Amino acid sequence: MNRLLVLSELFLPTKGGTAVWAAEVYKRLGGKDIHIITADVPGAAAIDAAHPNTIHRLNLKRVVWLRPESLAMYARFFFKTLALALTHRFTAVHAFRALPEGLVAWAVARLTFCTVVIYAHGEELTTWGRGGKYKAMRFALRHADRVVANSEHTRDTLLDMGVDAARIAIIYPGVDVSVFRSGLDVAGLRDSLGIHPDEKLVFSVGRLSRRKGFDQMIRAVARLRDEGMAVRYVIAGIGEDADYLDDLIAEYRLQAFVHRIGAVNEADLPRWLNVCDVFAMPNREINGDNEGFGMVFIEAAACGKSSLAGEAGGTGSAVLHNQTGLRVDGVSVDAVADGLRSLLAQPAWALELGQRALKRVEREFSWERVAEKTRQLNTHAKRP
Known about the structure:
It contains 16 helices and 13 strands. The protein is α/β, with parallel strands linked by helices. The protein has two domains: 4-174 and 366-375, Glycogen Phosphorylase B (Rossmann fold, 3-Layer(aba) Sandwich); 189-364, Rossmann fold (3-Layer(aba) Sandwich), CATH 3.40.50. The strands form two sheets. It has a seven-stranded parallel beta sheet with strand order 3-2-1-4-5-6-7. Strand 4 (92-95), helix 4 (98-112) and strand 5 form a beta-alpha-beta unit. Helix 1 (17-26) crosses helix 16 (367-375), helix 3 packs parallel to helix 4 and helix 9 (214-226) crosses helix 14. It is globular.
């Protein structure tokens, strides 16, 4: 049985795909013999008490007066990781990002003769320019024994960075199919926003950042309503674009038809994905910032819904064009509107796409399947 040390600054109760991935996979790979080092955040105690792995919490906040600001964080990460590695017989150290976790994992693994596995998610590879951070990240990735890419797009980016193809394994993120599933009770959701039974409902969820394409969706919905289509749009999530989206909704006079509902709780998210007709997130690249995969597309698929995705980044691994949904040019309002119109105007086709998406999830994307692929990682690859 593998004894693993896992480094992930992001872990539950922190929101986001990386935090969920780290929490879900390793509890399926073992119990207290798997140790996870992560950040100490509010609400952590309740998560740790219920989690089957051994969780170690550290203060990983950056110190603004230090140069670099992350120096203390790296030091805490390194010394805790080294102490655990010296007192336990770990077979491998897994790091959920190249920085900061991967660099620490590489240093400790080399000191303690463990293998090191680093995850790459896509967006972090293309948003740090070519300065010191990029060079450190590239060093860690090129010297890891294995690198896990979350999509074919991420793998191609790694190859461009000089990472050996033989060291790269593609493992898609997963979904809890016991939580995200079709047939859930959706009573009251449409009524809460005054959405009539004969109106189409499009749903989006995610951090409110420009690359997600929620602004393009607002423009596309305005166009479809001008054409006479009875469509409502619900946006869930929080983020830096909240005021911008509100201003856009007002500009197009869509206050009665586009609803920003803020953060939704864990129980309600699968219900919203059940009640909608189509899930949409027509992402685009902005200044190198891309969608590395798009776990929300898989969550929608697990609920039997087709998706409208952008063509940028790694969404092609999450949404198969014309098979489980549509991928369009997220830069073009025309393309977003055309894709949305196609799905909403052909409900039988959209339903068929959603059913194909559901079968694909059942076949490839359960967390149990992801855990099995992680277990099979060849962590004994020849070291650089």
